[in-house]
Amino acid sequence: MSIIAKQYLSVLERIRHAEQTAGRTADAVKLLAVSKTKPLAMVDEVYQLDQRDFGENYLQDALDKITNCQHQDINWHFIGQIQSNKTRPIAENFSWVHSIDRAKIAHRLSEQRPTSLPPLQCCIQININDEASKGGADSLEDVLSLAEVVNSQDNLVLRGIMAIPEHSNDIEVQRSNFARVKSIFDVVQQHYSSCDTLSMGMSGDLEAAIAEGTTMVRIGTDIFGAR
What we know:
The structure is a single chain. The chain has one domain: TIM Barrel. Helix 4 packs across helix 5 (103-112). Helix content is 44%, strand content 18%. Strands 7-6-5-4-3-2-1-8 form an eight-stranded parallel beta sheet. It has nine helices and eight strands. Strand 1, helix 2 (40-47) and strand 2 (53-56) form a beta-alpha-beta unit.
């Protein structure tokens, strides 16, 4: 078994253990394997272990992989910040977008989504710690306003919320941040029945995220190695 395969299976074991510890049901949390900057050969290794959801941050790197990938059943998730001039290739090539942070982006993604494809599955990014270096809505009012826009688009489906809280090695700080994200998610979910995805938690804090209710963790380093 390759190193990547061992690391992938170890991450799955961590997720299942964290679910059990938190009293969550088995398989309540989906793994999004973040393959940004990694070669297609590594994606293929993890694909062979039945992983079908892969996350990408950098558009050109992602498009090269998508174009050359022979596996048509992969769900490609765009999880990076979105510039207005990059919406068309995102709309044309991805199944999911996790990082909608303003109405303009939602409108452009819907307008540019090919009608031959299913609607784009969308998460709204929130900036829970109001960090200047990160995009995202920074208040519940802004999140609800953006959710209304996303929900009104013909070629988008509002699926949930995504967040990257500020880094901390303190699990209590991690849990506090994730709990705040979950409280916003709960409000949005009350308004929109399609909202079922809480995308939060990465290699260094997945246990805290699972304890606070995430439904999808985004793991790159602990599967594919450091960038």
